[in-house]
Design goal:
The chain has about 300 residues and is mainly α. The protein has a single domain, classed as Farnesyl Diphosphate Synthase (Orthogonal Bundle), CATH 1.10.600.10. It has 16 helices and two strands. Helix 1 crosses helix 4 (about 65-90) and helix 10 (about 185-200) packs antiparallel against helix 11.
Amino acid sequence: MNLPADFQSWVSARQSRIEALLEQVLPAQRIVPGRLHSAMRYAVLGAGKRVRPLLAFAAGELAGADVERVTIAGVAVELIHAYSLVHDDLPCMDDDVLRRGKPTCHVEYDEPTALLVGDALQSLAFQLIAEYRLADDPNTQLEMVKLLASASGSRGMAGGQAIDLESVGRKLTVPELELMHIHKTGALIRAAALLGARCGRELGPERLAHLDTFAKLVGLAFQVVDDVLDAEAPTATLGKTAGKDAQQNKPTYVSALGVTESRRFAEELRHDALRALEGFGERALRLRQLADFIVLRKF
């Protein structure tokens, strides 16, 4: 996929900001308990597209948000995402051995350490959004804490994973798949966009609703494309075990619709997501480009 040069520069600059702050906030291995801190850094640093923080940055531009504030919010979301990957890969969950092109955390270290890594990354995320001032209004910052907690819990990401585990071996309809992934994948993507926007000036309920609609649709499109790539792309390209969903008999958009219809559905979601941004004008340029990046990506 050929992306505009200015967008590539924008992405690289913000990925570098996220990586630098992650390096800073993750405890050093020399600090006790060193093995746990080593494993936390192993699970988070040096890999990943940082899509969720990028969405936070792009949404922050709608509200004229300070880039330093958005960086903190983006890192908090990325820590939650990283914790979820560590736990998802455990033998009691998806039992995977490869993540982001290297052995999963429990393979490189051990299962108890990986469990604690997830716990510690989640706690660190909430420490950051409580420790730094991200909004001028303290009530807005409290809402941001609540938003991230809700997106991470049983009504969000954790709940979606529970539905996923319960659905192994079943054939789900497209609406059932949407319900699962609105929670499992979409909740944190929506939170990233809304947190980025709330780091700036108040957009108002109507504009926030449009942004939320965009993020919801992009989150679903992200999962549809993930399912297609899992079915078609090789392990070396994905950086994780290809074909894992089919091997575990998990319901996916590909199993429900087939590859061709899944690709068409992702494009339809992208179109609807872009339509939700029509009232924002040029300030939504990066959000539009991220929608293209998410739907048209090859890995």
